[in-house]
Structure formats: C-alpha cells, structure tokens
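Hello, quick one for you while I still have it in my head. I'm working through a protein record and want to make sense of it properly. Would you mind checking whether the tokens look sensible for this chain? I owe you a coffee for this, so here goes:
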Amino acid sequence: MPRPRRTPSLAQRLTLAVLGFVLLTWLVAVGLSWSATRHELNELLDAHLAQTAALLATGEVDDLDDDAAVSAPTQLHEYQSRVAFQIWHKGRLRARSADAPEQPLASAGLRGLSDQRIDGTDWRVYTAVREEKGQVKDVIHVAEHAAARHHVLLASLRGTLLPLLVALPLLAVGIVLMVRRATRPLRALGHSVAARRPQALQPLPEDGVLPEVQPLVHALNALFGRVDEQLASERRFTADAAHELRTPIAAIRMQAQVAQGATHDDERRAALAATIAGCDRATRLVEQLLQLARLEADAADAQAREGAQGQCDLAAAAVRQVQELYSQASARGQHIDLDRPDAPVPVPMSATLAAVLLRNLIDNALRYGPDGGRVAVEVRAAGGGEGARLVVEDAGPGLSDEARARLGERFFRELGSGQSGSGLGWSIVRRLARLHDLGVDIDRSAPLGGLRVTVRWPAAQPVAA
C-alpha cells in the first residue's frame, strides 16, 4: 500500500519560496550583467578595430614588391595572435599579418563591422576602404577571433560573479536559520496545544504573541469556548434527561407493583392501563430526546444544512402529519382543520426535518387543547416578497407572557396545564428554526382562544442574471 504523501511544513514552504526567489533574482542579475558587459566590451573592442584600420589606412603600399608579405612583429601580448589584418591593393593582397588567412577576411563591397566565418573560425572584422579619384584603391581588413572576445568577457565577469556564487550557500544557510527562528512561535504554540489534556479548555495566553499568530490564537480560544459551552450543555442535557426519565420509570414500576398485588380484575386492569400510559410517556420522551440529540450533533447540523439546499413540499408534509395524528386526535374527540393551497408549497428544508417541525407543533396543540376541541393548521405559499408560512392554532388555555418568554427551554413546562410532557417539543422547534433561519412568533389565537404559532420561511433571494 503506497504511503501517503507528506505535506511540507510552513517553514519548508517558506524556505523553498525564499531560496527560489533568491536564486531566480541571482540568475536574472547574472543575465543582465552578462548582457551589459558583453555590449560594452563589444563596443570597446569594435572601436579598437576601427582605430587600427584607420591607422593602417594612413600608410602607403604602392612601393611594396609584388611578392612582399608583411609578417606579424614579435609577439608583444598574449592576445596579439588572435588579431589579424589584411591590406588589399587593387584586388591583390599586398600585406597581412602572420595569423591572417590568404582569402579576404570580408566579402567585397562590405564596409564597417561584420561577422565572418573562415575555415571554421569566427571573426569579428572591420573593413576600411581608401579611394582615389572615385575608385577603390586599398581595402584594409582588421579582424579579431570571436573566441577571444568570449574569453575576455568571461574573465571580466569572473571577478564579479564568483563572489556571488560563493555567497549563495551562505545565503541559503542564513535563510534556513532565519525561517526556523521566525516560525519558532508557531512550533511552540503547536507543542503547547498538543501537550494539553482533553479536559483543559482554558484560553491560551495571548501576551507576547506575534501579530501574525494572534488570529490563530483568537480562533483557538473561541473554539475552546464553544467546546466548553457544548460540553456543559451536554452535561446539563444528560442530567435533565436522567431526571425526567426517572419519573415515568418510577411511575411504571409503581403501577406494575399495584397490578401485581391487585386482587380484583378492575383494579388490575386500571393498573395495567396506567402502566401502558406510562410506557407511552416514556417512549415519547425518549423519541424527543433522540430528536434533540440528533439536532445538537455536528453531523446532524451538517445534514440539515445540506438538506436546506434542497426543497420539500410543505403542504404535502402537513397532509401526511395530519393523517398520522388523526387517531390521536380522534381518541379525544378533537378535530384538525387543514387549510392549504392546491399547488405545492416548496420550502428550503428536508422532508424529514419538515415532518419533525410539523409533528411537534401539531402534537403540542392536540395535547394542550381540550377534549372535543379544534386545531387549525394553515399553510400559505410564498408571495408578495414574503416566504412560505405555517400557522398552527389551538383552543387550549394559552400561555402567560412569562411562560412564552421561557418557551423553548429544555424540560420547561408550565405547571397546572394538566397534561404530561417534557417541554422538549419546543426545544426541537427552536433548534430547527435556528438551523434554517426561520421566524417563529407566538401569540394568542383570536378565533380559538388558545395558542397561535406562526413559522415563516425567509423569502427566496433573486438569482442574479
């Protein structure tokens, strides 16, 4: 199995980036120096060729014998053998240096500077012409080996570039050391976080932290605060859930003991019916605890956000929930009125979470409504710049202002309602509202006299063209 590719560290990336930039800058500087020095050197040597040709053009060659040949004088300089000249008189070679070839160094008719290749040797040639009565009398060629120019160029640059080349390794070592020193606070921060115990959620110290590291420290401290708050919330949830579950379990045990010791069938049947009712209350409490736990989990939050990217038909979801709760309402002679449009009502919410929202609202309305009462459910489509709307009304006793302010707290339930419950239904509704940015309004129902709950979805944003 191939080993996973190791991601380079920040220090390694910074070191490679700085070294690459320094090397690139060095190469560009070398290229510019090479080009500038070559240009200036060629200008200087070309001027020397032109000056030499001008000096040769001042002499006379008419008195030379036809067979005479001028050889180079005794070598006075190491580069003298790389310079040659020719003097042509009326088309005949009358004088040349010992290193000059016998064929012309430049083609007839050329004037000034030119580059020539003769017998595999590259020459830089300056051609001067001496005229008499409009006719070409003498042609003087002064040439220099092109290789000699390259040698002079390298010798000129060697003294400049060699120290820079030697300084590159020293510069690389210095960059590595400086990067390691600069990233030392990050490594220290990493070691400090890694050495923490899982229960240690106190903020990291911010004194003496580099400005570049401060955003990371702030983010970590904020994360520790959220984790601490989440853990405290889970601890409270676990304690409250254990307390709430203890009551129905104790009631079930007590009724079971009554049924076990009952001597009459009526007494036994009553105890068993109470036992079944206690099991139903415990089942509902467990279901609500599971729903709330899923909503509190990070995975459930991510799933909810993904579900918000899709849509579901709120009207169809309302129909399904009314049908599922029909038997519960009929048991107490209650009636559920559903007012919905014929067309679908799309909302940005998954069908599963929409069903959870509807079931909790309608179930609460049925529980706290009177026997034979009515529950009104209204679904309205988006329009007029507003999003979809859900309204659930009941004929119950309603809630006081203080109770409405606390509605949604876990395990809060107004005393004296005469109904069993845990208060978790409203916690679930509030959690769904936060996840999907829903507006929830609670007031008194004018036609029924009980509670009126209005849930509003945000209006759809126009799509930019």
Summary: Residues 302-309, 415-422 have pLDDT under 50 and may be disordered. The CA atoms of residues 260 and 326 lie 34 Å apart. DSSP finds eleven helices and twelve strands in the chain.
